[in-house]
Amino acid sequence: MRGSVAPMTTDAHATFRELHDEDLFVMPNAFDAGSAKLLEQLGFAAIATTSSGHAATLGRLDGAVSRDELLGHVEQLAEAVSIPVNADAEYCFADTVEGIAETIRLLANAGAAGCSIEDFNPEHQSIDPIEQSVERVAAAVEAAEHHGILLTARADGLLHGDDSTASVIERLEAFAAAGAPCVYAPGLRDPEEISAAAALAPLNVLALPGVPSVPELAELGVRRVSAGGALAGVAYGAFRTAAKALLTSGRYGYFDDMLPPEARDAAFG
Known about the structure:
The chain is an alpha/beta fold. Helix content is about 45%, strand content about 10%. It has helices spanning about 10-20, 35-40, 50-55, 65-80, 95-110, 130-145, 165-175, 190-200, 215-220, 230-250, 260-269; strands at about 25, 45-50, 85, 115-120, 120, 125, 150-155, 180-185, 205, 225. Helix 9 links the parallel strand 9 (about 205) and strand 10. Helix 3 (about 50-55) packs parallel to helix 10 (about 230-250), helix 4 (about 65-80) runs parallel beside helix 5 (about 95-110) and helix 5 (about 95-110) runs parallel beside helix 6. The radius of gyration is 18 Å and the shape is globular. About 40% of the residues are buried.
């Protein structure tokens, strides 16, 4: 497994591509500039945004963020850190291939080194037919290559009621054949299925309960591990627990769990 320190280069796009060439790296998901800086200070080689975590910072549920808000968020994170930022672009905020290309152009201009495209249609609340999804991925691949960023093609069926991992892996295979340089099916847990997917193209795996450990995923051929909205959920959960204790007990035990000043200063100074 590769060490977490990013290569010494000022080209975030090239750095991000190089990270996918061999071995495994962990790409945690930041939800604001402060969390991005903390992750960089800890030594991670790249970070990603999280649609649910970003939405939470705005007091909203996942899927309720506009494209302009995402672009501003990506720009803020890219300015906060020197490591590559991968954008969770959901459905790319577009029904047409022209719209997909425009979203990717705007993300590249905002500073993203990579972005994703999902096959879950938020308007219809369903997974697109595979032929339509492949067409969208192909358009996204072309746009991403034109702007020098790395595209991740997501098959999201396991998050939306599809119990057939075989159909999800079939989609990953089709996305890889359409040129996607990285594929991702959040919800994959079985080692054999993860290994099969990793053989298709560089694979991102979402860290979830029941998923093999990072060293085990490296043995299975996985290239990238992300955390989705989990770290944002941990942060908001700790905040809620501390605030609830203040309300119900009137005590201040939460000081024991605060970010140490030296860690704060190292990341934010």
